Structures are given as structure tokens and as C-alpha cells.
Predict the 3D structure of the following.
Amino acid sequence: MAMSDDPYTGPSIETIRQRLGILVTDGATQVNIATNGGELLELEVVLSCLPPHDQDDEDDVEVAQAVAVTKVLRDAVDKRYIKRRPHRRILKFILPLKDKYLGTSIEERRTAAGEDIATGRKPIKPNSIRTYYNYEPQALDELARVLVETEADHRKQLRPAALADSH
């Protein structure tokens, strides 16, 4: 929880959500995070997770950033924060947070997610995972919310929802 009455000054939920949507296409790889991480790379919670690295070595910086972003994403995709199991499962496949799917196409990752959350029923098609609001779009919305709340807590600032509730 926030420890002060200072308003949140970090990136908006919408900005983080947009950045997550961009990352999904090629997944949470070192190159994709370095190229498309944008505001995610500026989150104080991500910066606090950077492993020791040579700041003058671009490759070393990118490796450290990928490690930090992946750690923060893995920590966020937890049932304490994202209540719906299908959302957690989808995120683990599409980002991907499962090493087995690093380097695979987004269609392969969505297919695996559809098979995983089908629970004995006919697998959900990749395009349905991508477009049906209750699947990937809502899962990414939830993840963006959790990341912004985590960032606000890390900064010891009010969560954006707390500001909206007070008006």
C-alpha cells in the first residue's frame, strides 16, 4: 500500500497497457524488451530489479533490462494480484513467461494458451485468444493495472484508483 498522500507520477495504465501489447508480438526477449520496452524500462520497480551490469556495455545493459522486466512481469502474474486463473495462464504463454515458449511465434503461444485454458474442452483458437475481450485483452488490462499499482507502491505514492475513489 502507498505510504503517503503523494499522487502517482508514473506512467498511466493506458501507457503500460499499450507497451505490453507491443511486447506480446515478439515476446519478452532481450532484443524486443530493449527495442520496445519503452516506459516499462523506466519503471522504478524495474530499475530496482536490475542485476549488476556494465552500464557502458550496451549488450550488458540489454541483458540486465530483460532480466529485470521479466522478473517484474513474473512477480505480477500471480494469483494474489491477477485473480482469474485463465488470465494468469494466458499471460504466461503469450508474453511468454514460460521459457519453453521463448523464440516461438505469437500464434504458437496463443495456440498453447488456448489449449491450456480449455480444460478438457475443445481448444480455444489463437484468434479468439487475441480478440475476445475475456481472454488476452482483459488479461493485458489486468497486468497493466497490477504493474501501475506495484509502481505506485514502490514509489510510496497513491495508487491511481485511490485518487479516483477520493473524488
